[in-house]
């Protein structure tokens, strides 16, 4: 990553962490038991949000952080709990209920904690964003669930390892990065992209590359948790090892090579975009937001307790 991508996180990191923690405890999405709360606190989700939306206002930053926590807590259920992650039919019913709430359906009488948390998010988003943005966000959540999470669940249930290229595209969806990039527009007032700006080919290409880079990078950091602990086959390093018959060290090197190539392609797209002439300030802000995600994801992953482990295959994470 270019040295110019260095940035300082928002000063609201600890405050938004405390606010999100209170909300997930209130709806019982996070059990009030010490191991679960300690793990939540050690993850420092607010720091990730502070790195990836450094210019966001406090109110909007809290919404962004709540969505990240929604994703991480749901991901833990889908990736670590076999009764959830290996039952695609149950998972589909579970997420469909949340999707309907996100699109404005009233809460059911017996709503799950995740549905209630989704309802809180929907209420706050609808006050701060346009209907067009909300619909785009909901579509990206739907793609995350149906084109990412459910295919991953089917592989885990069947005990199959995805093929390489289909997995890379699955991971771009399963990472939920498209929803996170929607929040780049949301994080500051006046930054929503018109449909014309959003659909520019270079913007779409950079969005796709950013999702790939962040998702595949995360697979490096989460390799021990996903593959060695939970035997989940949906991990880029594992997919490379199986498909290309590589040792662990070789697979890690190959993974980093793919990530670096995608980052180079992202930089080339940015250069081409700037060469086209005057660029709308909202597009420039969006590009900076994508850079913040690529860079901030690594900075956070190196310090969060979510991936640190004394038995990690990566010396940098053995804390």
TrEMBL record:
SUPFAM superfamilies (alphabetical): Terpenoid synthases
EC number: 4.2.3.-
Cofactor(s) annotated in UniProt: Mg(2+)
Cross-referenced Gene3D superfamilies: Farnesyl Diphosphate Synthase
Protein name listed in UniProt: Terpene synthase
Keywords assigned by UniProt, alphabetized: Lyase, Magnesium, Metal-binding
InterPro entries per the UniProt record, alphabetical: Isoprenoid_synthase_dom_sf (IPR008949), Terpene_cyclase-like_2 (IPR034686)
Protein family per UniProt: Belongs to the terpene synthase family.
Organism listed in the record: Archangium lansingense
Keyword field contains Magnesium: yes
């Amino acid at each position: 990553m270019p040295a110019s991508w260095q940035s300082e996180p928002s000063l609201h990191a600890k405050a938004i962490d405390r606010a999100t923690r209170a909300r997930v405890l209130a709806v019982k999405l996070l059990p009030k038991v010490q191991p679960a709360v300690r793990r939540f606190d050690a993850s420092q989700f607010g720091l990730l949000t502070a790195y990836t939306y450094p210019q966001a206002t406090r109110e909007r930053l809290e919404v962004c952080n709540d969505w990240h926590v929604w994703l991480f807590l749901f991901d833990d259920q889908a990736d670590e709990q076999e009764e959830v992650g290996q039952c695609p039919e149950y998972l589909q019913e579970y997420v469909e209920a949340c999707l309907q709430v996100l699109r404005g359906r009233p809460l059911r009488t017996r709503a799950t904690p995740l549905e209630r948390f989704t309802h809180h998010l929907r209420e706050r988003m609808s006050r701060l964003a346009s209907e067009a943005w909300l619909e785009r966000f909901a579509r990206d959540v739907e793609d995350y669930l149906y084109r990412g999470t459910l295919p991953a669940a089917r592989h885990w249930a069947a005990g199959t390892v995805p093929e390489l290229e289909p997995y890379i595209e699955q991971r771009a969806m399963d990472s939920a990065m498209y929803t996170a990039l929607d929040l780049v527009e949301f994080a500051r007032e006046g930054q929503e992209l018109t449909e014309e700006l959003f659909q520019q080919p270079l913007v779409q290409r950079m969005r796709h590359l950013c999702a790939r880079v962040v998702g595949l990078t995360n697979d490096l950091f989460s390799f021990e948790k996903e593959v060695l602990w939970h035997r989940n086959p949906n991990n880029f390093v594992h997919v490379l090892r199986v498909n290309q018959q590589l040792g662990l060290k070789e697979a890690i090197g190959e993974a980093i090579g793919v990530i670096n190539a995608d980052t180079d392609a992202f930089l080339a797209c940015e250069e081409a975009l700037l060469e086209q002439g005057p660029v709308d300030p909202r597009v420039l802000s969006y590009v900076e937001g994508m850079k913040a995600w690529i860079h901030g994801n690594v900075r956070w992953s190196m310090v969060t307790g979510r991936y640190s482990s004394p038995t990690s295959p990566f010396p940098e994470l053995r804390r």
